[in-house]
Write a structure and sequence with these properties.
Layout: E1 3-10, E2 15-21, H1 28-36, H2 41-57, E3 65-67, E4 70-73, E5 80-86, E6 91-99, H3 111-130, E7 134-137, E8 140-143, E9 146-147
Parallel strand pairs: 2-6
Antiparallel strand pairs: 1-2, 1-9, 3-4, 4-5, 5-6, 7-8
Amino acid sequence: MNFTIEKYFDTKKVCYYTIRFEGIPHSATNLFFEKYNLSHPRDVTHIWTVIQEMGKYGARLERFRVEEDVHALPVTKNGLRLYCIRCSNETVILFDGGCKISQENYYSPEIWPVFQAMKKIERLFRERVKSHEIEYDGRYLIGQLTFSDDIE
């Protein structure tokens, strides 16, 4: 499925991006928050607070849970995971997530497919950065942010 990395919102210290799949009107991040806002309000509020705090102080590595080649929020105990790519202290690409019911991702049916998709998106993104098709301009991403690669 084709997707685009697009600006989500900008703060004093961090520019946040999100993933929007072709033909879907809302970003993956918005869909995550909409899906879990009613069923997991405390967890959603906690993740949103972490994102806002990073926006004030920077997206330092210790604020993220590292899971293989991708990152997740929050670092602290929470019933949800929001997967992302921490590009730098100033740039984060937020994606999607789900309920974490096990220590191992493959035992969490909502997490496993999202985690696998995030790994593929991260690999495609890093390949474009390496080939200079995507570059950093401070905290902003410039270049070819639309992908036609199949990540399913």
